[in-house]
Write a structure and sequence with these properties.
CATH topology: TIM Barrel
Distance between the termini: 13 Å
Shape: globular
Number of domains: 1
Strand content: 15-25%
Strand order of the largest sheet: 1-2-3-4-5-6-7-8
């Protein structure tokens, strides 16, 4: 079993990281994809500690849309920084999380788009999968992903869209990753979307420390809780949690080649 998206190198886990990793392993997790912000030196340093405690983890490195404004003068500089970080992190297997966030608009939308596009070109050049963050920006996200001939692999992480968006992601060659929000009582449209994603394109994640699933909602999330997401999806798909866990693990390994 894997957690395909978590922020274990964040400050929220610094004080008890060893215990968090131990709980994940005790829950049966074999691996996790840990997200690192290319522009955050402290997080990159904490990533080394994560790798020491859990050698099986792999990393994704990217410039989040919230930080895109830092590269407004030269969006290509974001991609060059990510390239440097990738070279310095031997366990890196993907570029992310990257994308567009029109909910908070912490960065101008045109700058977000330029920084996103620059990182997609880097992903194509290196043959790496992408980890996409998209919020209230569906059309622009898929438009930019499809530019330059498309041809990218990757995942729409923490999926919060509807069935149509799920089908759109799959048609674009992407995986769809479901997180704890899938277990929330009012997340019916997300559960409907989860039913239509082909099993070979499905992933599960925690996005920890955020969005802890029911019954942990309101607490700090952590990788061990991905099992609750898996159980909820298995019930939706009318299959065993063990069978679904094996499938999403195969999907993770095929996409990120850990």
């Amino acid at each position: 079993m894997v957690d395909s998206h978590c922020h274990l190198a964040g400050p929220e886990f610094e004080a008890d990281l060893e215990a968090v990793v131990a709980r994940a392993r005790a829950a049966g997790l074999t691996d996790a994809l840990v997200i690192l912000a290319a522009d955050d030196e402290a997080e990159l340093r904490r990533g080394r500690r994560v790798a020491e405690l859990w050698p099986a983890v792999r990393f994704a490195v990217g410039v989040h849309p919230h930080a895109a404004h830092l590269f407004a003068d030269d969006p290509g500089r974001a991609a060059r920084l990510v390239a440097e970080r990738l070279d310095a992190v031997p366990e890196a297997r993907a570029i992310g999380e990257i994308g567009l966030d029109y909910h908070y608009d912490f960065s101008p939308r045109d700058v977000q788009q330029a920084v996103f596009g620059a990182q997609l070109r880097l992903a194509r050049a290196r043959g790496l999968p992408i980890v996409i963050h998209t919020r209230e920006a569906e059309d622009d996200t898929f438009r930019i992903v499809g530019e330059d001939g498309g041809g990218l692999t990757g995942v729409v992480h923490c999926f919060t869209g509807d069935e149509a968006m799920a089908r759109r992601a799959v048609a674009a060659g992407l995986h769809v990753s479901l997180a704890g929000i899938t277990t929330f009582p009012k997340a019916g449209s997300i559960r409907d979307a989860a039913r239509v994603v082909p099993l070979g394109r499905l992933l599960v994640e925690t996005d920890s420390p955020y969005l802890a699933p029911v019954p942990f909602r309101g607490k700090r999330n952590e990788p061990a809780y991905v099992l609750r997401v898996l159980e909820a999806l298995a019930e939706l798909r009318e299959m065993s949690a063990t069978g679904l866990g094996d499938q999403v693990t195969r999907n993770y390994e095929a996409l990120f080649r850990p």
